[in-house]
Amino acid sequence: MIPLLQQYPTHTLLINITFCLTINTFLMSAIKTAILSFGMSGKLFHAPFIAVHPGFQLAGVLERSKKMVQEIYPMVKSFNTLDELLADDSIELIIVNTPNYTHYNYTKQALLAGKDVVVEKPFTTTVAEAVDLQALAIKLNRKISVYQNRRFDSDFRTMHKILQQNLLGDMVEAEFRYDRYKPAIGPKQHKEVAGPGAGLLNDLGPHLIDQALTLFGMPEAIFADSRITRTLSQVDDWFNLVLYYPTLRVRLHAASFVREALPAYMLQGTNGSFIKSRTDVQETDLLAGKIPNREHWGIEPASEYGLLHTEIDGKIIKERVPSEKGNYLDFYQGVYDAIRNGSPMPVTCHEAINVMRLLEAAIKSNSEKKLIDIN
Predict the structure, then answer these.
(1) 38: domain CATH number?
(2) Angle at the Cα of 344 (from 343 to 349), degrees rounded to 5?
(3) How many domains does the chain have?
(4) What is the pTM of this model?
(5) Mind listing the pLDDT tens digit for each residue in 223-269?
(6) Which of 199, 294, 314, 320 could be a cystine partner for 236, CB 3.0 to 4.6 Å?
């Protein structure tokens, strides 16, 4: 399939996007939204979904130096400073998608300015910061959600459905992997230079931990091993976490030297197994310039279906399971329902704080080389 940006001239794409932004204002009480960064995160994981959702209006982007947002979204205002953006009373929702170490300060400023907030993972760099933001949001009657988009991947949703249908019996063990082959030191200093929120555990750990907590709840204890494997790296680029439950062990793993990846999800129960690759198509399609839509978005090819091998009613079954549809737009639908209709945020502060608790415990476990109880 030819990517959307290649199918149509740039001016046609801009007209379509402009139409989306305009129609949003008239269809319903649109939530005017601003994004604090327009790098990969802003361009791919936030702006396209805000632009096509009729409940939102992409109203502003913070761009201190490079001014790029109006090349794609000509009706969107580019702000020079955070103070200028926060002073705009028309903006209701702020997307904090800046480096990890800035999350606490920027979210706090946004809350004090009377805005609701969506924060990229990890929520903050410490549990204390996360708890403080939760308390401030409650005091100011504002809402916070953390952008755990991997809950809305097709592969994770498929695994979730397998567990909900109890197709494997009692769970014995599970393993989630986020392996990549990335031996080079990346250009983003906030990820590669030692400091608060840096390193692979802080980058990919929140995804895997959140998925484990969504499926199995808080563990009783955690053991963590993290290390540096790349030449000249200043930060961890490999980790292995083991979450201890009364009758279940969950292993969470990420590495930087994996050319031939193992299955990303492996579930083992008393009746059978389910294995699945990490193949959600949304990021690939976004990189190709495709605009998300509700009908055909997030559908995996049959070649990537997971394998179920189990016993049901005395019959052994070994078959491929069609993947559930992935859609990050569902996250923003949840945000809309929370702000306009009073529903809980799609990822709550309480859930995000629990992720931070396990991240802190993992760091302590690795440092002290021992099992850490989760109180």
Answers:
(1) 3.40.50.720
(2) 160
(3) 2
(4) 0.91
(5) 999 999 999 999 999 999 999 999 999 999 999 999 998 999 999 99
(6) 199
